[in-house]
Description:
By secondary structure, this protein is an alpha/beta fold. Helix content is 33%, strand content 25%.
Amino acid sequence: MQPVSVVGRGGSATLEREVRIPPLGLQGTLKQPAGAKALIVFAHGSGSSRFSPRNLQVAKGLHDRHIATLLFDLLLPEEEDDRKNVFDIKLLGQRLLDAVDWITELPDAAGLPIGLFGASTGAAAALVAASARGERVGAVVSRGGRPDLAGSALPHVKAPTLLIVGGADYGVIELNQWALKRLGGEKKIEIVPDATHLFPEPGALEAVIELAAAWFERHLFESESPGSNSAKQSKQ
């Protein structure tokens, strides 16, 4: 598919194109607003896809803040029928690693600092990928995630990590608090009052967008390359 220019807030143009992530050819959508200062790779949750309406809304909010996004399907169509694959964090993490490795070599995006945004089980995949690509991943945000499923990878995550949880998402809050204690590097948890797991309440997803955007801006906008955030921290 040829790139399509979409006019966003304030009249700025966003370049949109459909892509295939090697080596399996996973389908994705890459959107780059004019003057993008960073790029966020999304990892959707179980039973979802790159068309997740909540992730699309978050991505739109990031575009308005000069942040590019890559949303892609973590599984091939024939793999989605096997429910075990949906919860195979090692498999999903590897797919995310493939996407990070690919995007960092893409000529028009290679110089952008990279962050990861994971939802539900995708949050665990994002943390597994971050633990393996510490020099390339500058920040991670989890929305209603299951970071606990990243298990032994948690202490090896050095990228600044923000866990966003709904205040009424009982059980998941405790799992995020458990994971927070085990995460390496800078970390923080934000509770969105009265929100449930999918953040459908009025203003809840907007709060997620504001928190995520602020985290990425703080940790990625001053980076000169995908690994410069780590270098900056090592000097402190």
